[in-house]
Amino acid sequence: MSTFCNPQQFRSNILNVFFTAVNRFVRQCLNLLSAMVSQGVEAAREVFSHVQFKTLSGLAKRKDKRGKPDVRLAFIQFVLSFLVSGDSAIIGQILEVKELLPHILNTGLKEDRMSMVNLILSTLKTRVVLNKAISKTQKVRFFTPAVLTNIASLYKWNGIVDATTDDDTMVEDTGAAGLSVVRELVHSFLFDLCCSRKHGISFHDPSFGTAGRLGNLVLLQFLVGLKQATEDELVTELVVNVLKASPDILSRFFKETHYSYTPRIRSAWQENVRLLKRIYETQPEISTIFQTGEMIPLPRLLSMIMVVSLPPVCNKAFFTQGLNLANPTVQLTTVSMINFILKKANKNMEYLSDKSAGHKSVLYTVEMMEELVQQYRETLGKILPDMTLIISTWQSLSKKEKADCDAKKAKGEKGVELTENKNELPVAEEAEVIVLKAFILQVICLYQKVVPHLVTQSKFDFSKLLKGIVSEKGMREEIPPVLQYQILQLALDLPANKFSWFHLQDVVNSESSPGETSVLYLLLRMFASSSSSHLSSTTRKLVLKVLRDTGVFEYTFTELDLWLDQLARIKPDQQETVIHFLERVLVKLVCNSYNYTDRVAGFVQDAANLQANLSVQEGEAASVPVSHIDDVLDMLDVIMEGSDGEMEEFGPSLSEDLIIQTFPFSAVVPAALEARNKLPADRGVVCEYLSAVLSDVLHCQRDPLPLCLALQQYDKELVSSQLLAFHQSIANLHQYYSRWLPQQCREELFKSSESVSEELSAPSSYSSLIKAAYIQGPGAMLEDTFRQNTEKALAFMSLTEFPVLIKQMLLYIKSTVEDFGKFSKEHGDAFLRALMGMLQDVVIRLQSFQEATNTDPAAEEPQEGSDLFLELNQSSPMECNKEQIVVSALGSIFKHPCLEQWFLALELATLPPHPLKPVSLKRLCAQLTDHILSLLKISAPTLDELNHLELISVYLSAIERSALKELVERGFHPAKTYSRSFQALLFLHSYMDSSNLRELVSRLLLLPRERLICPSSEGTQSELSIYGHVALQILTKYYSTSSQNQNTFLTPAHLHGLGTLLLSCSSPELEAFLLQILSSKPGSAKLIHTDVLLHCLRRSLPDSLAISCLLLQNCSFHRLCFEVWCEEPANMEKVSETKAFLPLINTYLQVAQREDPARPKDVQKEVLEAMKKALLSKFSQSILGNLTEDSGIHLVEAAASLIKLSADLNDIWDFISDLPDALQKAESFERLFNLSCGSLQVL
């Protein structure tokens, strides 16, 4: 002990032991020192001050080759004991001594035992890395790049496994399991140390290294020194996450790294690029740049964006060399890198262009962001390869494929046999080329989005790319769907002037019809032959885009869907002829558009002149304007004037109306009819196709006369050409459209009486069924067989059929309305009813439409790599378009002039021009209004859900105007039945604008009392009239569904009107609504007249007394009125004998305790005295007797309040005397105990 007390002797003895060659003595000495250090902070500090650690560095190298406990282990435990037992000062001093921990980590850590590695890493992690008392500066000074490299060497640990794990594989493969454990330990340690800004050595640089700061140099040197980042997955993960946490060292890392990024045909280069992509995939979003709250100059802002989005090694030389190497693997790696950079840039530009990002708008204006995006585009444009190099890569691949194909054909069967055993490599290469070509197409699309100026500078005709995808026979079977999709997406994204869609070219690989054709033909062929619904939908979009971009279909582009729909329905073996015909028509139309556009305008002008002449003739021959109609008919005064200005009020908006009138059909109609008349006789399939399309076009017309005149004109030209034969479908179409031609200009061109019946002998679709019935006449639609057939056909309709079918039915309805006077009374009403009923069935079916999606084979078996590299949107077209189709279909219904003009036309006295007699006019108006109202009722919820109530705004406005008009014109006699205006108001008021609805309710409630109630007969009480019920229902529905603007919706005048109604009639609904209002808005009680309280007291019903309670609680005037009412002996006797008044009495006694200087005290005292005389004895008897749980609480509380307010000891002496006897009974005691304790205390 004396030796320990002598520091000099102690130090001398210890040092002498350390220099001995006997390892056992050295270990025991180190264990002794470790035990001394573990005694506490003071002991650790004492030992640290007496030991010369610089002389002990050699102990870390004294290992036992047999794996037994050695001097190194004891030395490590001794050093770590300072970290475990010392305070922050001791730990800091230990970290400063380079001969201790750094020396330990540098002398064979990779070969140490697993337990020793775990001890070192866990101690460093808990006592240094996660220790908040150790500053980040101390950590950085200790964890030098050399120390970090020594720790990282544990990823390749090859020491002895001297510990067990929970892993079952430890028994089977001890070495592999131990290595896995050590790798996870070191990975977790380095991850926390290098990636955590809170505990680790990573410093945050908000400038991303663009401000010139030194930054995280330790981490930079450490990462540069790692050699196995591309070989070891854990090391790769470490590098990626360190650079994610410290993006400021990104640029310097790639400048100093030993990895080469010069494109070459080696797997090592591909692994380097793969690491590069992983690093930039995890870089922070550019939104973090704008979260600093500081204004950053645009040049530095752009530099910061480039740091995290563009690798510095990816320059124009990198891309050019990679694409010029004639190796698909190198080219694929290069193009995929371009694709990755462009996608990241596109995402960044979308964020920068997003005006909704509030944190940007505070510091940066929209103009500044636009300037930044433009600079971003220009910077990328200088780095990315130009479009010529991208396209030349595609062309070289195509040429190589063609050469390989020709070589295979030349070899023949012998060559196939020779290479039969060598198929694996060519298949892999072919798949690689497919993915490469798909990437090239996607890169071109991204060029248009990110650097469009590079696309604009290119003079290449991108329509040539289609030649490798589509042949004369349609989509090439060997072309995978991923390439088909990408070429279509490319054509959709690029500007129209980059394609020569209508330029005639020599047909390549055409076996059937050599000659000239256009690229548009390939598109149509691609659309018709596609077996994938998704590819077909994308091709349709492309065809529509191409045709719309020509400018010929600017206002009639919706008609193009009809041409494509019918083309898709043609049998595959007949498509070729129709596609050639349609392509030639479209090319001729685009090349000479003004000629055919003028023809359409001429037919429109002819139709207008014809209608004007017919209107003059009908005006001269028609009866005089209708004057006052007989009272027997109960009709309004109808005055028919000229049609000038009438259509403007009830038809569509001016611009839409002008468009529909000026362009009723597209210029392709006359062009196709002209080409049809020149067809040879063996082109019957083209005639059938044209007839089907023109029928659909006819069904979509609001005014079919211009189209019918055009059809008849070209049919006359066909007949005058004296061809020996014409197809039957032409005659059928002629007889069909002639129904819409006026008798004066109708011509019988084809003599074929059975043509129509033969064509429609067995119709299958809903459209053909109603077409056949319409041709046969009204009786056909009224047959039960027809009704059954339409119900079956409706169940099997596809979603795309609904829009045209609905327009077809609207055409029939319009024609029936115009010809209503020509039908007999029974047939006209039944025919119109049948049509409107079918339209309603179709709308119901459309709204509830659910179609099982057929699984696409291409989607089930995607091409290899397509799901990894390409973003294919394989969502069902039906799912995407249902909402759009529903809105479009309902819009075509409710925007149709016929329905808009005739809805409530009689009530509004705004009848459209018509030749009808008064009786027929009334029937027509009534029936149309009823059916339109039914359509509105079933469609309004859907439109409200889809946020498209504007489609029925005209009808809601008509309902409001007609209701207000009725209130003004009906005089002082209330209606006995609901008019159509008020029926519509009741059904649709919840979809009306609240301000308009409030005005209407105000007009209702402010009506004279006589109009809001029905006169009572002898012995009965008056009830609410029709108008009173309407006002009440609207208010009830509004207050039950709307939580906004309730305060402004119901004004004091409204409340006064409601009170007046309540006094004048018996209406439980009105009482329930008033109770709801008083419950939700207690302050409304001050706006209610006191007569309402007296009325409720007289009725003595639950709702009436509940209203009385609320009035007493919230208004002192009502309390005074109640007190005056109670002073009447008869009223007090009624209160004392009726249990229903008990809640009311309790309420009054509670509010009577409030201080109210405005109320006379004498009246209250008199009322309380009267209540005490009339009620207190009865209350006492009830409490002591048979007290029910329902009324017990109210009774006890009322008695307690009454005693507190007016009684003295003499008044309750008898009650106090009898109370002990009542409590002796168990039932009475339990019942009284469960009542209000506060009330019993008063008692």
TrEMBL record:
InterPro entries: HEAT_URB1, URB1, URB1_N
Domain of life where this protein originates: Eukaryota
Sequence ranges assigned to domain URB1 central HEAT repeat in this UniProt record: 501-615
Domain URB1 N-terminal, residue spans: 23-271
Any matching Pfam family: Npa1
PANTHER family tied to this protein: NUCLEOLAR PRE-RIBOSOMAL-ASSOCIATED PROTEIN 1, NUCLEOLAR PRERIBOSOMAL-ASSOCIATED PROTEIN 1
Record-given protein name: Nucleolar pre-ribosomal-associated protein 1
Native source organism of the sequence: Characodon lateralis
